[in-house]
Amino acid sequence: MAITNFDPVSYQIVKADNRTPHAEITLKIKSNDQDSENAVTIDIEAKMHEGETLTTECIIRRDMAYNMAHRVRESLQDLGVLGHGEHAVNATAMFMENKQYDTLFKKVRESLKIDPTEKIDLDRFLQGGD
Q: pTM score, two decimals?
């Protein structure tokens, strides 16, 4: 079984004012190229500026590994880390505009031996999401 553990990655996110600290997010990612249903496991830890620590895990199928940023964002929303109003945060740079994320995502794809032209299971995606 080829399991790859990646170095933890940390991000600081701030509230919508782009100044007030909100949370320190740490992602611990591992991939398993022998298990297409549980290909990527992401342990998420959010250390809130107020002192509370929140944790969760998301598991991603191999054909949905391209969707890592979305899944982490959903998990952070479920934890209440990303919200609206006074709790809104600027998390865009955490993934979509971050070279560190791009490099990590490339390494995950390589560890799973994913060809960028591979197709996802669209029927399954439309029926149950990712």
A: 0.83
Q: Show the domain range for 59.
A: 3-112
CB 65 within 8 A of CB 40: yes
Domain membership flag for residue 82: yes
Domain presence at residue 122 = no
Q: What integer pLDDT is reported at residue 48 of this predicted model?
A: 94
Cβ–Cβ under 8 Å, residues 44 and 76: yes
Domains held by the chain: number: 1
Average pLDDT over residues 91-114: 77
Q: Does residue 117 lie in a domain region? A: no
